[in-house]
Amino acid sequence: MNNYQIGIDIGSTCAKAVVLSSDKKILQRVLLPTGWSSVDTAEKLKEALGPWLPEADTVATGYGRACVPYAGRSVTEITCHGRGAAYLFGGPELTVIDIGGQDTKIIRLEQGQVSDFLMNDKCSAGTGRFLEIMAGTLGLRLEELCELASTGGGTSISSMCTVFAESEVTSLIGRGEKRENIAYAVVDSIVTKVMSQASRLLQGAGRVCLTGGLCELSYLRQALKKKLGRDVLTSPDARYAGAIGAALLAGKGAA
Amino acid sequence: MADYVQMWKDLGMDLENHDLLCQVLPTAVGDVFLSQENRPKAMDFWDLVISEVHGIRPAELIEEQKKGRKVFGTFCVYVPDEVVIAANGIVTGLCGGSQFWVPDGEAVLPKSTCPLIKASVGARLGRTCPFFRIADMYVGETTCDGKKKAYEILGEDVPMYVMDVPQMKRPEDILKWKNEIAAFARRVEEFTGNEITPEKLNEAIQLVNAKRRALQRVYDARKSECLPISGRDALLMMQIAFFDDPARCAQMCNRLADELEDRIRDGVSVVPHGTKRILVTGTPLAVPNWKLHNIIETSGAAVVCEEMCTGTRYFENLVDETKTTLDEQFMALSERYMKTNCACFTPNTGRIDDILRMVKEYKVDGVIDCSLKFCCLYDTEKYSVSRALKEAGVPILSLETDYTDTDAEQLRTRIGAFVEMLDA
Ligand code: SF4
Ligand code: SF4
């Protein structure tokens, strides 16, 4: 058993790492853009983790989890996000909505263990990628899009498919629809998609939390809350949920 | 590999395109099968057959055709092999399991057709599968809508006979299926020129029952805590059973079962103790569709049973061998075949009972319910399947996939997380 536990989460847009002390306190957080190559990203993380690495048990997760040669083993992001969320939000029952760059996961936890999960299929609607593409079409940054959306209303996008939704947005722009209304429709569309995807698991009791790269967009959380009719928790560490979960599992040896 | 080029040419195949298929298959076989450790020795037979899947058996079929025998190609486990065999005909399965054939199928079918149908139509129209060239007659059936309509298109290119499968299982439906079997028998007699006598039909019933018993023996061995064979190897055996001569199939499966029973006695397992045991249920996995099993078994779990047409639905339930008139025999056949629980029927609660029973029999830790994309029937039935399993406290993962490899990583994550959940 080493002194530290490190979790590394290489996602499609960002790579995250967390160092835990032996009493499970977060000692260090690292955040890097993933860039083109998971291998390079893993190398950069290694530098940042230099002081702890030799004395740590390390687990990798995320879609680049196979590209971390210095990790003892890899665990899927579903298990890690679930464990990380349980660490951050606790409770006997918890439903985690994780909207990531390329996929959206809904994870059900009972007594801190994953009991069921859903993941979006190949399609990018309902993921961070969808918001990014739409923001791009509107000439906005993600944060700007969400801020604008909070002042808009009255419009909707009917298509669930990213490609068709994009042309809908273009025609709304052409029609002279106000940008805030279009932004509102974009956020409304992703929330609707996530909700319909999650409905089966959201029937369960307990609290709901939002993790993943998009949890810092406060209007998105507002919109989710409103649609759900339930509070949606988050935390400044929520985007590290996967890395935290991986670090927690690093303490468990081979599962 | 022996030289089959002349044979393929004589069959009117598109050699250039077919070469592409021949190039990828050995790598796939190597990755999925030969890379496994501690395989049963008796798998050497199936390794050989699959390595020359477009050579060995097609050559045999052509030899038999030269002697005047007819080859019938089928697409569903509802079509009774016994009737064809009683008329000295040969049955070969024709379901396409590779993405390779899908584009040729999409040339005539809507994109939103299940890949099994697209691949089957593509294999015929693209002239890239010898079995689809060899079959003298195709036998279709009115199961799902996609197949019904595809048979109309195939029927323009090859002699086609379609059996009218009932959609319910009331007594009148069983009677109706009996009459369909009788009508099929008359058509087979006409086509082969051979009379079907009660004696010949009885022999055929015994032959096919023997094959079913042999397949069941292999599956029985998979029930052991000491798992003597991987899911991948068992699946390969199942898939080839649709193409092989039934007597040889029974012989080879019994030979394999002997070895598996020895292994259980000697405590030889292909996986470490405690490896999670998975039951796979859903739509058929036609050769060479090994994606699902390969991902499951390289994610730390083992497949111990397939509740599928390429699995238990093919061999469970025997035909009564004691009947002596054609009329009684046709009824006995109907009764056996109508016990197969396919999502084309309504209601289909028997399938749920089967799954729950198999969970116990095969000591299953978790179920993966996987259907082919655009198969509305099995996709819809996922709801009742997962509800029943949840009620029984059995973990279940529902998946949908096609023949492409583009979703392999996604599947790997889901299946990996499911196995982690079982291990936790
Ligand atoms: S799934 Fe149904 S239609 Fe398909 S082969 Fe099986 S019994 Fe026939
Ligand atoms: S998998 Fe479904 S859609 Fe495809 S042939 Fe079978 S029943 Fe029809």
Relevant terms:
heterodimer; A: 255 residues; alpha/beta; Nucleotidyltransferase, domain 5; 5-stranded mixed beta sheet; 8 helices; 10 strands; 23% strand; globular; B: 424 residues; 4-stranded parallel beta sheet; 19 helices; 8 strands; 54% helix; binds iron/sulfur cluster
Structure write-up:
Chain A has 255 residues and is an alpha/beta fold. Chain A has a domain at 4-78 and 241-248: 2-Layer Sandwich (Nucleotidyltransferase, domain 5), CATH 3.30.420.40. Chain A is 40% helix and 23% strand. In chain A, the strands form 2 sheets. Chain A has a 5-stranded mixed β-sheet. The longest helix of chain A has 24 residues, at 179-202. The radius of gyration of chain A is 19 Å and the shape is globular. Chain B is α/β, with parallel strands linked by helices. Chain B has one domain (2-423). Chain B is 54% helix and 10% strand. Chain B has helices at 5-10, 15-34, 44-51, 56-66, 81-86, 102-106, 115-125, 130-134, 145-154, 171-192, 198-222, 231-241, 246-266, 291-297, 312-315, 326-337, 349-361, 376-391, 408-423; strands at 71-74, 90-93, 137-141, 160-163, 276-282, 301-307, 366-372, 396-401. Chain B has a 4-stranded parallel β-sheet, sandwiched between helices. In chain B, helix 14 (291-297) crosses helix 19 and helix 17 (349-361) packs across helix 18 (376-391). The longest helix of chain B is centred in the middle third of the chain and has 25 residues, at 198-222. The mean pLDDT of chain B is 96. Chains A and B meet through helix 2 and strand 8 of A and helix 19 of B. The structure holds iron/sulfur cluster (2 copies). One iron/sulfur cluster (SF4) binds at residues 76-78, 143-144, 284, 309, 340, 342, 344 of chain B.
